[in-house]
């Protein structure tokens, strides 16, 4: 989308739609009688995302509800801009959106939020897969501000860069697993590495096995498709000793393996690689923004299939951490590929601040539903800081406890750790926490670590006023903001 910033009187908007935010509780006077009359007749207009198109001889106007004035924040502004775009996607070639005057946001944060919302709203996951695809007509957006200062462009640019990453995660997530194979994922990783001057390291199946990544290899062995452990590195601050790692679960399709899943919702398991896609696109945004920091993105990419070579329940594998893991359920494969990926980030890339993203457990959906990401951590300050950033930028999170009692639940009789929890009074007692505990078994002494269970938030098949269906790109915005 072409997005520009302009400071000009509303009367100068001749072509395209003029989009005017309207608060529920306090109506701004835009000096346009058409608008004034409409709002006089409809004093209740203004609920968030409510829309009304008004036409006169020489103007086209979209009123967009902005909710309660004092509630306007980064997220509501982002989504407000998105809702306006979605209402006009196929109705107009251009629109001019007046940025609302309210709240504590700086003007730069406003252009940042708006740019994110606009790009996310314009993304259409069906573009490549409909015989008669009806493309949107909207190609230009103008943000109307009081004064076009320099900082506003910075905000706009940042929003577009991060939105591009979010939309790439969405695109990769929506791709069906017959296209989005581990090899396809690798090709994308190679391309983004080249385009953004990131160092790429690729371990194929032979190499992961030889290196001792038995947990990852055990999952990968069931599939005919080649599997890869991929690392992308960005060095933006040589003097800094801190090294971040973003680690992503990249199961391009999760059938459950021999502990096979019921077929009902299995098609959605194409989204089981969105953690890996998110960390890949997040590091791309970090590079494009030239952030002063050092990061490695590690992606554990494979299918989880049943078959003659698939691993069995009862198998014991040696993880890259050195600990032995007993496979009690081949469908709990995310923690298996991640424990090795997390070790890889620490051992081979010296990462000391590790954040992993994974569609790890159905249990997190039982706990938190579809809109909240589960957070697990080993250091209070680090976790608190992460949660503050994610709240500010509108990715909802909730922390779950990691008490020692849960360690007991993943002890194995035959090996060190078991890949599902046991000993609770319900079959899946604390299912998300025991998953996190398993990954934590690969976290070393001095490492600050956070695990994000995005199983509920990584995709959304209900369209929103500000976003179409499919993968959401959850995590990208917070990772980039946290690191900046
Ligand atoms: N990828 C799934 C988790 C999942 C389920 C994500 C539903 C999104 C929606 C994961 O690999 C899995 O199958 N987990 C099992 C763990 C269990 C066997 C301990 C689960 O959640 O049932
Ligand atoms: Zn699984
Ligand atoms: Zn899975």
Report on this model:
The protein is an alpha/beta fold and 484 residues long. The protein has 14 helices and 19 strands. It has helices at residues 33-41, 74-88, 107-122, 150-174, 182-195, 205-211, 214-220, 274-288, 334-349, 363-368, 380-392, 405-409, 431-440, 476-483, and strands at residues 2-6, 17-22, 51-56, 59-65, 94-98, 140-144, 199-203, 228-235, 244-254, 294-304, 316-318, 324-326, 353-358, 373-377, 397-399, 417-418, 448-453, 459-460, 470-471. It has an eight-stranded mixed β-sheet, with helices on both faces. The chain has a six-stranded mixed β-sheet with strand order 1-6-5-2-4-3, sandwiched between helices. The longest helix is centred in the middle third of the chain and has 25 residues, at 150-174. It starts with a strand and ends with a helix. One zinc ion (ZN) is lined by residues 254, 256, 304, 331, 333.
The ligands bound in this entry are: ligand BES, zinc ion
Number of strands: 19
Helical run tally: 14
**Poorly predicted runs of 5 or more residues:** none
Order the strands across the largest sheet as they lie in space: 7-8-10-9-13-17-14-15
Biggest sheet overview: 8 strands, mixed
Element layout with pairings:
Elements: E1 2-6, E2 17-22, H1 33-41, E3 51-56, E4 59-65, H2 74-88, E5 94-98, H3 107-122, E6 140-144, H4 150-174, H5 182-195, E7 199-203, H6 205-211, H7 214-220, E8 228-235, E9 244-254, H8 274-288, E10 294-304, E11 316-318, E12 324-326, H9 334-349, E13 353-358, H10 363-368, E14 373-377, H11 380-392, E15 397-399, H12 405-409, E16 417-418, H13 431-440, E17 448-453, E18 459-460, E19 470-471, H14 476-483
Parallel strand pairs: 1-6, 2-4, 2-5, 5-6, 9-10, 9-13, 12-16, 13-17, 14-15
Antiparallel strand pairs: 3-4, 7-8, 8-10, 11-12, 14-17, 18-19
The chain binds ligand BES and zinc ion (2 copies).
One zinc ion binds next to β9.
